[in-house]
Amino acid sequence: MSPPPSTLEPAAEPSAPEPAPRPPSSSPWSVLRIRHYRNVWIGSIGSNIGGWMEGTGIRWIVGSTTGSALMLGYLSTAQTAPMLLLGLIGGVAADRFNRKKLLLITQFTMMLIAAFLAVSSYFNFFNLNVAWVLIGVSVGQGIAVAFNIPAWQVLTPRLVPRHQLTHAIMLNGLQFNFGRVVGPALTGPILIASPTYGATILFLVNTLSFAGVLIAIAGTPDAPPPPRSPDSLWEQTSEALSFVFHNRGPRAVFLAMTIFAMLGAPLLTLMPLVVTKVYQLHADTFSTLMAVFGAGAVAGVLAIRYIPPWYPKHHFIPFAITAGGVSILAFALSPTFLLGSISTFFAGAFWLWSFNSTFAAMQMLVHDAIRGRVMAVCNTAVFGITPVGGLFAGLVGMLATGDGESARGVQIGIATGAALLIGAGLIMLTWRTPEVDGLEPGDPAYTRDPSLLHGLTGARHRYLSSGDRCIECGHSLRDIPASQTVVTCPECGHVNELRNLHALHVSSEQGAVPDA
Predict the structure, then answer these.
(1) At a CB cut-off of 8 Å and minimum separation 6, what does 459 contact?
(2) Burial readout 24-38 (b: 16 or more C-beta within 10 A, e: otherwise)
(3) Is the pLDDT of residue 473 over 90?
(4) CA pair distance 294, 159, nearest whole angstrom
(5) Distance in angstroms (rounded) separating the CA atoms of residues 383 and 388
(6) Is the pLDDT of residue 503 over 80?
(7) What CA–CA distance (Å, rounded) separates 67 from 129?
(8) Which letter does DSSP use for residue 469 in this model?
(9) Cβ atoms of residues 174 and 298 within 8 Å
């Protein structure tokens, strides 16, 4: 299974000069014209569907054979703990070894684990120890994932030009969430149709699904590591941490992704309790709600083309975070499954916008020599802080009602996190950080005026062309010379800035990023 897009892709430096800088196409589909990326993308669709089928099957086996929420908790810990313990080491490995070979090795290892599950399930090797066997297998799979994700994160950026990286990441989000919808939807009928061999079929499908993505990766250009540093493991990790926390742009992006991971997490963590306690429906409805969430994420990818290309990331990221908080708050306050489904759909869209835009921004800022380590820092932080959000929501609900698992307690817990998320988004939208887009003081597009209205509209960054209108009064402005950077509106006297985001695109295309 390919890693989630929220932990995907950085950008290798192009080997040949790129064409003259231009604002990127508004359609994310244009990136599929690149053959190697298209092959990997198509292969990843099948891999993600198989991965979601296997994951659902494992949870079903553990839950149905033990009936223990504690065992499901152990399973979740087994799946995530290796990333927390080995994530940074995996990032160092991605910067020290051939990235293509590392990715092929980790993908093949996960395929072998899936094959082991299929064979064991068919011959009933699990017997009475099925839960502990699956938990042990999940630990092994988690170790492989800890090294696979950083290796995967340097794949897409070395396949697509820099100016199409954001589009590529959005399409990765689409295929991942398409798998989130299709995988669980296929799992139920398979398990019902074949109670004896249903799990075996799921594991076998996942095993076979690795073939497509392995063939696609094998066909990509080689990816040798950057020149090896003589520094120790700790020194190399410290270099990545220094880059993230000592530079204004990367630090702002890191805070945005971790804040969203923590305060948005209760949506998914407590969703089963919302279904059973608030909606008074069976737990099986949870899979339907998850499918709606995935469909919203897919819709978010399709809707991204309607975001103006001049709207910069240091506006878009806090906007997506704020909108995500609003949709999660609506979910928390929804008394019925129908209203909850509608708000979940929008939450899925803004969830994808928030995570994909933050990781895309970090990938545009980081140098290739430390890319794997920096992205590993981000992955580890996001994986590590997500459970804290669920714990926080549960504690808030318990303090407010005396019972964190009651319907009202669950709603209060989710709503509190959502309200804090909205507040954080509005603060970031008012006091923006242009360095997120690689801008520095003195650049034409660098503005730090605190204004919520300007943060929402991004008007200060809108670039004009022939036939555009005055931002202030709407008066038509025509025949503007290409070299002109400002034009005074003859109607209202407003000084329209023609260069802002165009200059931003030019600087980012030319690699104007802060030094580590």
Answers:
(1) 471
(2) beeebeebeebebbe
(3) no
(4) 26
(5) 10
(6) no
(7) 14
(8) B
(9) yes
Q: How far is it, in rounded angstroms, from Cα 243 to Cα 251?
A: 8
* Spatial separation of the C-alpha atoms in residues 401 and 410, rounded to whole Å: 9
pLDDT of residue 499: 45
Contact indicator for 149, 99 with CB cutoff of 8 Å? no
Query: What residues have CB less than 8 Å from 357, skipping those under 6 apart?
Result: 166, 313, 316, 317, 320
Q: What's the rounded Cα separation, in Å, for the pair 319 and 425?
A: 7
pLDDT band, very low/low/confident/very high, at 461 (cuts 50, 70, 90): confident
Residue ranges of the alpha helices (H) in 366-439? 371-401, 407-430
Residues 6+ apart with CB under 8 A from 237: 88, 91, 92, 373
Q: What is the 3-state secondary structure (H, E, C) of 420-470?
A: HHHHHHHHHHHCCCHHHHCCCCCCCCCCCCCCHHHHHHCHHHCCCCCCCEC
Query: Can you spell out the DSSP letters for 25-85?
Result: PS-GGGGGGSHHHHHHHHHHHHHHHHHHHHHHHHHHHHHHHH--HHHHHHHHHHHHHHHHH
DSSP letter at 495 equals E
pLDDT of residue 209: 92
Residue type, 64: S
Tell whether the model's pLDDT for residue 467 goes beyond 60: no
Helices 233-246 & 248-264 angle (0-180, nearest 10): 90
Summary mean pLDDT of the chain: 79
* pTM of the full structure: 0.72
| pLDDT (tens digit per residue) in 79-131 | 778 888 888 888 888 878 888 888 899 999 999 999 988 888 888 766 657 77
Sequence-ordered alpha helix ranges (H) in 161-283? 165-193, 198-218, 233-246, 248-264, 266-269, 271-273
Instruction: Summarize pLDDT for 450-460 with one digit per residue, the tens.
Output: 889 888 988 77
How far is it, in rounded angstroms, from Cα 503 to Cα 310?
A: 10
Measured between alpha carbons, how far is 406 from 280 in angstroms, rounded to an integer?
12
**Amino acid sitting at position 513:** V
Percentage of the residues of the chain whose pLDDT score is greater than 70: 79
Contact 202, 57 (CB under 8 A): yes
pLDDT for the residue numbered 330? 96
Rounded distance, CA 434 to CA 450, Å? Answer: 12
Question: Pick the residue with more confidence: 476 or 191?
Answer: 191
Q: What is the pLDDT of residues 233-245, one digit of tens each?
A: 778 788 889 999 9
CA angle 313, 505, 248 (to 5 degrees): 45
**Cβ-proximal residues to 495 (8 Å cutoff; 6+ apart), any chain:** 486, 487, 488, 489
Give the integer Cα–Cα distance in Å for 480 and 372. 44
